[in-house]
Design goal:
The protein is mainly alpha-helical and 129 residues long. It is built from 5 helices and no strands. The radius of gyration is 19 Å and the shape is elongated. The mean pLDDT is 90.
Length: 129
């Protein structure tokens, strides 16, 4: 299969960058918020509510972090399907991530934010709790 290894390398490298930039940032935010809260030893009811509140706060503050990576990946793969005269010439999703803010606008990376942010908010609130 022609081009298998270069495409696999592009997907893996972009996956690592997106993982650290999205999920890593979400987990770091949760840890930062959770570690700054007092932890009583004998109050399990308070602790149960605290996990949900901290999870919601961390998810709400970071629900948007995956959008630039997702939209850059979509732009890269869509660029391959466009006619030659309309193509931007992205070589990889990572290059698309760095070129889009300068060629289109930074807001292009945040298109379609509402459903993705709501999914991330609900999923990561449950995950963190």
């Amino acid at each position: 299969m022609e081009g298998f290894w270069p495409e696999l390398f592009k997907k893996l490298s972009f996956g690592v960058v997106a993982g650290f930039g999205d999920t890593g940032l979400k987990l770091a935010a949760w840890q930062h918020i959770y570690s700054g809260i007092w932890h009583p030893a004998d109050l399990p009811d308070y602790n149960s509510l605290k996990h949900g509140a901290v999870g919601f706060t961390a998810a709400l503050s970071t629900c948007w972090t995956g959008l630039p990576f997702m939209n850059a990946r979509r732009a890269y793969y869509a660029d391959k399907t466009w006619p030659v005269e309309l193509r931007r010439g992205y070589k990889s999703p990572l290059q698309a991530l760095f070129r889009i803010p300068f060629e289109e606008s930074p807001s292009y990376l945040f298109k379609g934010a509402w459903p993705v942010c709501m999914f991330n908010l609900m999923f990561y609130t449950t995950f963190f709790t």
